[in-house]
Structure formats: C-alpha cells, structure tokens
Amino acid sequence: MWKVLGFIQKNLVWSIPAFMVAGIIVGALTNPAPLKSLIIPLTFLMVYPMMINLQIQKVLSGGDTKVQIVTQVINFAVVPFFALAMGRVFFGDRPLVALGLLLASLLPTSGMTISWTGFAKGNLSAAVKMTVIGLILGSIATPFYAKWLMGTVVEIPLASIFKQIIIIVFLPMILGFVTRIALIQAVGADKYNKNLKQKFPAFSTIGVLGIVFVAMALKAKDILANPLVLLSFLIPLAILYAGNFLLSTLVGKFFFERGDAIALVYGTVMRNLSIALAIAMTAFGNEQGSEIALIIAMAYIIQVQAAAWYVKFTDRIFGPTEQVQTQAG
Predict the structure, then answer these.
(1) What is the largest CA-CA distance in the chain?
(2) Predicted confidence (pLDDT) per residue in 150-209, tens digit
C-alpha cells in the first residue's frame, strides 16, 4: 500500500490528470450528486496529515528575517495582483474561474515547498518557516483579498470562508500539532522521523485526488459540453507560474546567497492548492465551488512539472553547493 501511495505522490503530474479524467467519466455516466457528501471528509483527509509534520515552533527561530520578509512581500503584494490581472485578461467573462486563479495565488507554500527546497539543496530551515508563516498569513488574508479584489463581480461569502478556514486550516493545524507531540512521546523522536514522518503526505495525496475527482464529476456534463475549457486554463496558468519563477529567481540571485535564494523561490512559487481547493469546494456551494475548483486542479499539473524541472536547473542558475565547489577545488 505504501509503495502505491508513494508512487502516486511522486507522480502527481500524471495521477492528477488521471483522476480528473476518471471524475469526468463517472460524472458523465452516473448521477454525481451523492459524491457531494465526500467533500468534507476528503477535505479533512487532505489537510490534517500535512499539518502533522508542520513545525509551528520554527516561526520563533531567528536569523533569516530579510528573506522571510521579502518572501511574504512577493506572496502578498505581487503574486495576487499578477493573478488578478491574468484573470481579467483571460477570464473577464468567467468571474468564478478568475476567482479560482486568485484563490490559488493567495495561499502560498505547501509541504512541497520544504521538499523541493531539500531536493535543490536550499535552506530547509528557512523553507519550514516560510511554510508556516505563509499558511497562517494566507489563511487570514484570503477572505479579505477575495472580497476586496473580486467582491464586485462575485458574491464573496466572507463569514463562510472564515468559518471554513477555521475548520480546514486552523483546527487541523492544532490537531496536527497535538498528534505530532503525542507520537513523538509515544515512539520517540528518532522512530517518528525515520518511520512515521514520511507516511503522512501520502494520506494528503489521497484527499487531493479525491477532491479533484469529485470536482470533475460534479462539472463533468459542463466540461463535455465544452471540452476545450480545461485546456484554456493552461496558458494563463503557465504565464502565471513562469512570471512568478522569473521574479523570484532574479530577486533570489541578486539579493541572497544560494540556500536562501532557493528557499525564496519555492516559498513564493509553490501554492497551497490543497487548501485553495478545500475553500472552493466548501465555502461557495457545490455548483460554484466546482467551477472555481477546475482551474485550481489544473494548476497542480503546471506546479508539479515546473518545480521538478526547476530542480534540474538550480545549479546552473545559482551555482553548485559549497560542498561541490570544495570538492572541485
């Protein structure tokens, strides 16, 4: 089972489209309405496991204030407005899709921020802190940004969004923290880090794929009536991610040393699409939520591919690690 889940998690670029197609097929051939009852449990399954490994106490550690501030400035003063502009250009007549693009941009960092920073040999400590700060700030700011930037064209249920964020972000965060402490006390830190820690993201992946499946099933008939609709999302998403990567790379390269620069790139480009999906599917009702969720689901394809390719070019962009340089010298 773990091998299968691990394989699916490592191959999200293929598993996400596969579950999207499966959802469309099921939604086309059956009545998908009963699947609505799965949204809440799948949301919890998606968010809670990722919170268990979240080291909230890292926020209190110092030493990297500059890169943390610059990261959050990019996350909240640049990227959402870029996404808003892209939404107006490409989806001026489809405000719910534009809102989905905005939601995807408003929730920075995910567990993959830490993973990809590690793969690229960046500053892991800074990445952990970015993940916690970005998640908390994004969760608090999202309802206000959505109301401020999209409230004139889409009815933004402010109270509902706040309620859902408490349920799908802060409650799992508290439960995850308690779970982590309890597991460490029960089995010891070494066993937790070696045997248990890496298993939790796989459960989150099940939740992600389940939510994607349900979202596609609920919108299947609309998608089949206009099959090019999903492909139309790829161009604005590609431009959004390319612009984000370019900006963050330039800022990182010119203002920070290699480790912090890599953390900054992944701390600003990787979005918490899982929570964006959860908000879309729980706060806006099934019909609107499914419409909003479509572009967020497509963003997974671009994000995973882009993050993987960026690792391959990291040494060319920022130079090799100090260890490699020392060996070469």
Answers:
(1) 66
(2) 988 888 888 889 988 998 889 988 999 999 999 999 999 898 888 888 778 778 888 888
The pTM of the full predicted model, rounded to 2 decimals, is 0.81
**95-106 and 231-255 are packed helices; what angle lies between their axes, rounded to 10 degrees?**
30
Residue 278 · residue 47 · CB < 8 Å: yes
Q: What residue segments make up the domains of the chain, in order of their start?
A: 25-316
**C-alpha dihedral, 281 to 81 to 254 to 139, nearest 10°:** -40
What three-state secondary structure class fits 271? strand
> How many Cβ atoms sit within 10 Å of the Cβ of residue 235?
11
Class of domain 25-316: mainly alpha
Nearest Cα to 127, choosing from 68, 74, 176, 177? 68
- Other beta carbons within 10 angstroms of residue 175's beta carbon come to 15
Above 90 in pLDDT, residue 236?
Answer: yes
Q: How far apart are CA 320 and CA 12, in angstroms?
A: 28
- Report phi then psi at 133, rounded to 5: -65, -45
